[in-house]
Amino acid sequence: MFFTKRPPPDAKETVIAVVGASRAPEPLPVGELRHTVDPATLGFTSTAELEPISGLIGQDRALKAIQFGATIKSHDFNIFVQGPAASGKSTAVKQYLEKKAKDAPTPVDWVYVNNFETANRPIALKLPPGRGRPLARAMVAAIDELRNTLPAVFEGEDYQARRRSIDEEFRSGQEDALAGFNKRAQDQNIAVLRTPTGFAMAPTHEGKIVKPEVFNTLPEAMRTDVEKRIEILQKELEQILERLPKSDKQRRAKLSDLNAEVASIAVREALDDVAAAFADEPGVLAFLTVAGSDLVRNVGLFLAPTGDESEIVKQPADTARDPRFRRYMVNVMVSNGEPAPAGAPIVEELNPTFGNLIGRVEHLANMGALVTDFLLIKSGALHRANGGYLLIDARKVLLSPFAWEALKRTIKGREIRMEQPSEMAGMMSTQTLDPEPIPLDVKVILFGDRELYYMLASADPDFSRLFKVQADFDDSIARSAENDIAFSRLVASIVTQHHLRPVDAGGVARLIDEAARLADDREKLSIEIGRIADIVREADYWAGAARHDHVTRDDVAQAIAENIQRSDRMRDRAQEMIQREIMLIDTAGVKVGQINGLSVLQLGAFAFGRPTRITARVRMGAGRVTDIEREVNLGGPLHSKGVMILWGYLAGLFAQDVPLAMAATLVVEQSYGGVDGDSASSTELYALLSALAEVPIRQSIAVTGSVNQWGEVQAIGGANEKIEGFFDVCRVRGLDGRQGVMIPKANVQHLMLREDVVDAVKQGKFAIWPVGHIDEGIELLTGVEAGVRGADGKFPAGTINGLVEEKLRAFAESVRAFGAKAVGAVPNGRDLT
Amino acid sequence: MIAHVAAVGEQRGRVVLHLGSGYPNQIALAAAIRVAKAFESEVESLFIEDQNLYACADYPFAVEISLCGRTRRALSVAHIEREFRHAASAIGRQLDHLARIAEVPLRRTVVRDDPFTALARACAERGPWNMIALGDTVGNSASDDIRRLFDTVLDTTGVILTGPRAQRNSGPLVVVLEDIAHLEPMLRTAERLAPEGGDTPIILLLVADSDDKLAWMDGQVRLVLGANQTPQLARAVVESGGEAVLAEVIRRLQGGLVIAEFGGVLVPASGDMRYLTSSLECPLLLMR
Q1: ipTM at complex level
Q2: Residue A348: enclosing H or E segment and its boundaries?
Q3: What is the pTM for the complete model shown?
Q4: Nearest CA in chain B to A190
Q5: Residue numbers of B between 200 and 229 with CB closer than 8 Å to A
Q6: Residue B26's pLDDT is what?
């Protein structure tokens, strides 16, 4: 079976004068295509004359919210700053807070000290600002002093004499008891003999042991008497010997008392200085009391040898690092007042992990085991920001395991309680600490985009309760002379901040133009400070390369062009495919059911437009339209919605008294990725009307715009890129004066077209047509009047609408002739009538 | 009065280390080795099993009361023999180790006898230049035993004893001079024990009961010493009954070995030694 291709009615494009009252739009005048700033109107020659602006411009709503949120005293009125990335919101917030925090009271210091009762529950001490580190230093100095004084005191004559006295008292008492016993035994002619492991007794005569054989010859009474005496003496000796451990215990007790007495004097003297310096701090005094008692109890720590005495070179040990004295040290968690009170802290945590936010308890490996103590407690951002402000990127904190939950729990509980993630997860952990929680008074400021805000608001009930203030940063400001100057000052501040060359008025004007372009709206200025700053810095580079004293308009233009060139490889590739007719796009002639649509591709920060062929085929059917993109899952929901809307337009306009007995297929040709958005719905409607009316469409015109069910053409996004995309194709093929782009009227205000496009329009080689209704567009595309339904209820013959209606009636008749049986219905097609 | 120990080659004496219990004083053992090394002598460790104990064991009612006083068991010859054997063996190992380090010849002997008799016999074997070192710690009432030792054992030039507070063997060599007539032999002994060029200073402590006598002694000493400035001089005036003061003076000198005469103020021929034993932190070499 062979198909013969039906030639278009007029393969050669001709501009047909529309018969009757033409509703075809007029091309836009050049002045509507780009809103440029005259440098002379700015009132300065370079940014060197301008005072840099501090803060943001045109963000009153957001700034008011920040002022409110930062001032209100409530733990749950935290702030979520939302706005586009690189919009300068973080800088603006910090600048505002710095001013406010400077005059705010400096928050207290927090330190952890050892809990001498329960070592795994370190005690948190609150101190006036700037007193934490002095306390830590004072304790090191006190222990240092004790390291010198205690050994000296215990080696001193006074102590040694007293100790000898106690020892001697015990020893002599012991010896005297045994000597006395020996004497008593001797008096009874009994010898006390020392064996290797004890004592034994035997009868004596004239100082010599009586031999057993001699003893046995003695009268029995005498022998019995000796045995009794020995028995009595043995019991006495046992009693004496049993008393020895008790007296030794007494000796140790006396020595212990002596040690405590001697040590307590030195300890008191060493800690007195600390106590005097912190006399107004009951917490510190209580700590010193307990630490003093512990020092007295553990005075041996100071007397034990520190190492090998034979070392040739001995360095004085660092007291703060000496493991023996760690328990007396002070772990300064937060120090706010050194060297001078600095107001409320503003802490920006760039890596908001759990540990970096809440703090962590570190461990040391010791003999294969992990050990820790209160000195290994490390402060987190919440500790440092306590009494002030904590700035966090919302996305980062959400992506960090455990961090978000911990942050919420801490804000809600109004105290920083250190619980390690492993414990929270119920995992086994080595011995760790349970430090006393520290009360929290902080204003948390999260930064994120709008999507994140709305996602959190809907998905996390805690979020709305804890972040009651939203500061919504706009990404653009209204265009006005006042804002142009404000923008110029913003450029001046970028120049100052980055130490760049001043930008002359021409350069600033070009930057304002680019800001309008970035805003995608000539009535607006983008305030994406990061992007603007990038352009200014790149322009400064090119100014340097050109040896300019100032950054000029040309430098800014070159910076923009170079930036685009670095990013537009894909655009060139797309253009090349069109020029080589791999991708089929006609820019001349006419075709039935075929039209040039426009799409925008966003690749990173760079977006560009590209023409795309859209075709429509119709036939008799059961009132179904097949969106092929959707059928193969390449079409997004918005695209499908657009197709359904255009079908609604057709049904509403032509199927009031006759069934829509047609089937249609719509396709975006050579589209191998996804298609979404409704900006092609008007384009698809034009193609469908052309196919139904069998009237060809001019291929020199590309179309964009969405349509509603009443045929009104609605605004779309990316108008500039789309126009430029089609212009680039036409320019390469040769501009002939008939090419142009049809855009929704509502998009005229967004136009900030490239200068080469504007020049081409100025020279009559290219045109932009604003369209308000489908009828206007179809007339421009076909050169045939759209037609208005007359008093007889019919469209005039020969008009597009008349031809369409005629075709649809013919389809209906045919269907009826076939017994109202649908012909050629597409499987899975959807009945839209 | 000559404090001398025969050298190895002389075959006429040595350091006789008396051991009797299972718990010798470690400082005393080291002191015996030190003296032997200084005199290039040998050490004979004489472990004496008190024969009176064996006699005692023959009594049917004989029991041994433990050192802590809490247990009592029947005393038997076999038990005593075993305990003595174990004690001698343990001490012997310690001595072997010390002697090997000091490179001092060691001879170990175990005898079953009366202690004084055994010592006298051992010294007589190679008399007369023996030095007796007491391995056990001496107590407050040791004077009588020391006197008896000097009376019984004629072939000894001195006795080394160690008190309960002994804690060092290093430090200055302190010579306690109470009688100027003893200066020369005591000094010679000290010089032998602290060889020239070594790092052990000699402190000569002059003891007299009056300032005048002390001044006189000082002059005499200087005459004897002449240009020899080796010993440092220290002085103490000790009136009658001032042994406690003298003991404290000696303690403060922080000596490593004290040389003194028996029967003087420091170690009277009889009576209580508690002041000395409570202060003496190093071994004491008593010269006859």
Answers
A1: 0.83
A2: strand A346-349
A3: 0.69
A4: B56
A5: none
A6: 93
